[in-house]
Amino acid sequence: MFGMIIAVVSGALMSIQGVFNTGVSKTSGQWVTNTFVQFTGFLLCLGIWFFYERRKHGFAELLYVENKYMLLGGILGAFITLTVILAMSAMGPAKAALFIVTAQIIVAYLIEVFGLFGVEKTPFLWRKLIGAPIAAAGIITFQWE
Fold first, then answer.
1. What is the DSSP letter of 54?
2. Which of 16, 34, 125, 144 has the fewest other C-beta atoms within 10 Å?
């Protein structure tokens, strides 16, 4: 239950952040907005780490991450922020969120099925694959005027 609540909060925050970032980018541009978003997020994380985790975990531990490609999350985050801004600018928040979530579901399922990036491999199930076209049908229905 906790996981579901956190997922709902995450989705809501992502939608709100996308709207905020898109609004800011209209004045300052996409890369200035992206830089500001990532920098303020960095400062917040650094502050929280300093007060709550610095005695338990240090930055040197990053040197021991086994799969170094896992350290690319921040770079992916910059492109996530940019693509959300571009999508919301082009389609509006609701349509963009529908496409984004549908893509997340499909890619997450492929990661599980193929056991990519160290994720435990799960068996392929047709009923889960059928969910993708159902999600696409939902997008079409949502856009129908």
1. T
2. 144
Cβ neighbors of 17 (< 8 A, separation 6 or more) are 37, 84
pLDDT of 57-85, one tens digit each? Answer: 999 999 999 999 999 999 999 999 999 99
Rounded to an integer, what distance in angstroms lies between the CA atom of residue 45 and that of residue 39? Answer: 10
What region does 118 belong to: left with phi over 0, alpha with psi -120 to 50, or beta?
left
CA atoms within a 13 Å half-sphere pointing along the CA-CB vector of 74: 9
| Residue 128 burial (10 A CB sphere; 0-12, 13-18, 19+) | middle
What's the CA gap between 117 and 96, in Å, rounded?
A: 27
pLDDT at 140 over 90: no
Instruction: Name, in order, each residue with C-beta under 8 angstroms of 62's C-beta and a sequence gap of 6 or more.
Output: 71
CB 38 within 8 A of CB 79: no
